[in-house]
């Protein structure tokens, strides 16, 4: 029995439910990227909220905010290896979490799904397809995708967990062990 205390590992029990959530994020990410390619690769952007939000098409050959986008191609494999290694680490992390935890594995599943969604693009195409553009006047936030949103939300959730709930979880675990 793994250290997380998994009894009767069902297909939708802990930790599998978190892997299913990651798979849902991957599927949603890939589906929306395919849609964006069909809609916006050759055509104009679609204004969602004029002056603030539009759907468009962009290819990101680098990492976040196009970091190292013009590095000559080696970054594809470098960022791919990092994403793969990180994904394996998160899969193991999810497996070891106690079944009672909800917030932390939810956050990790979002991050895992986003990382694999972008890894899929990077390995298959050599770049990541982005299509969500937030802007105001002449200011433009870097174009992003569903995977990026999942990673960002998951990371924010982990920070919240660390800052506000990690001590509480440790105290609750200690109290339940004493009983």
TrEMBL record:
Its EC number is 3.4.23.36. Pathway: Protein modification; lipoprotein biosynthesis (signal peptide cleavage). Keywords: Aspartyl protease, Cell membrane, Hydrolase, Membrane, Protease, Transmembrane, Transmembrane helix. The keyword Membrane applies. It catalyses: Release of signal peptides from bacterial membrane prolipoproteins. Hydrolyzes -Xaa-Yaa-Zaa-|-(S,diacylglyceryl)Cys-, in which Xaa is hydrophobic (preferably Leu), and Yaa (Ala or Ser) and Zaa (Gly or Ala) have small, neutral side chains. The chain crosses the membrane at residues 18-36, 48-68, 74-94, 106-123, 143-165. Pfam families: Peptidase_A8 (PF01252). The active site is at residues 130, 148. It is a multi-pass membrane protein. One of its GO terms (molecular function) is aspartic-type endopeptidase activity. InterPro entries: Peptidase_A8. The keyword Transmembrane applies. Its main location: membrane. It is an enzyme of class 3 (hydrolase). It is found in: Cell membrane. This protein specifically catalyzes the removal of signal peptides from prolipoproteins. Belongs to the peptidase A8 family. This is Lipoprotein signal peptidase. The lineage of its organism: Bacteria, Pseudomonadati, Pseudomonadota, Gammaproteobacteria, Cellvibrionales.
């Amino acid at each position: 029995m793994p250290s997380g205390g998994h009894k009767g590992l069902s297909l939708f029990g802990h930790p599998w439910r978190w892997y299913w959530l990651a798979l849902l994020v991957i599927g949603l990410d890939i589906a929306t990227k395919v849609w964006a390619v069909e809609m916006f690769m050759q055509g104009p952007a679609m204004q969602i909220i004029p002056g603030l939000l539009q759907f468009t098409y962009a290819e990101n050959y680098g990492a976040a905010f196009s970091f190292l986008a013009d590095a000559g191609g080696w970054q594809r494999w470098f960022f791919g290896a990092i994403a793969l290694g990180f994904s394996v680490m998160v899969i193991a992390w999810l497996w070891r979490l106690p079944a009672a935890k909800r917030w932390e594995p939810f956050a990790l599943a979002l991050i895992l799904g986003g990382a694999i969604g972008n890894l899929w693009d990077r390995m298959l195409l050599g770049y990541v397809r982005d299509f969500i553009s937030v802007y105001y006047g002449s200011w433009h936030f870097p174009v992003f995708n569903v995977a990026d949103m999942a990673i960002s939300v998951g990371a924010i959730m982990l920070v919240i967990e660390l800052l506000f709930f990690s001590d509480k979880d440790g105290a609750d675990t200690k109290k339940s062990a004493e009983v």
